Amino acid sequence: MKFLCVVYEEPNNGLGPQTEKEADDLVNEHLDYDETLRQSGHWLIAQALQPVETATTVRMRNGKISITDGPFAETKEVLGGFVLIEAKDMEEAVQVAAGIPSARMGFIHVRRVYEFEKK
User: Fold this and answer.
1) Which of 74, 78, 73, 45 is closest to 59 using CA atoms?
2) At 114, is the secondary structure helix, strand, or coil?
3) What pLDDT does residue 14 have?
4) What is the reported pLDDT for 73?
5) 86 has which bridge partners?
6) Which of 38, 79, 101, 108 is deepest in the core (most CB within 10 A)?
């Protein structure tokens, strides 16, 4: 089964990297964990996202496109990236998600991927 581990960050909570070196160390820790997941057979793909200020929100209403700069949700958390994994069940997926380094300073939303088949 495939599971999407959505990485949310909580900016300004004091738990994230405070210096450039700490930020570099966190990136390296993520890359090391990706390699651990590759070796265990869990890893499918992972990507970090650019800062939320670079985002655009797109909506289609009544045949018209509406574009808003940045996110439009009223939340303190921001989407930082994702990890797509293979796991036997939700319990195993949760254990894999708990190892994602950013879980210590934000949270990881784990959701099973629905795999469509054309009929």
Assistant:
1) 73
2) coil
3) 67
4) 60
5) 2
6) 108
H/E run at residue 109: strand 106-112
Whose tokens are 């929100």? That residue is 57
Please list the ranges in the chain whose pLDDT falls under 70.
Answer: 13-14, 70-75
Please give the Cα distance from 13 to 74 (Å, whole number).
17
Burial 11-40 (b: 16+ CB within 10 A, else e): eeeeebeeeeeeeeebeeebeebbeebeee
What's the chain's length in residues?
119
Do 105 and 9 contact (CB within 8 A), yes or no?
Answer: yes
**Residue 87's Cα: distance from chain center in Å?**
17
d(CA 3, CA 86): 6
pLDDT, position 56: 85
* SS3 state of residue 66: strand
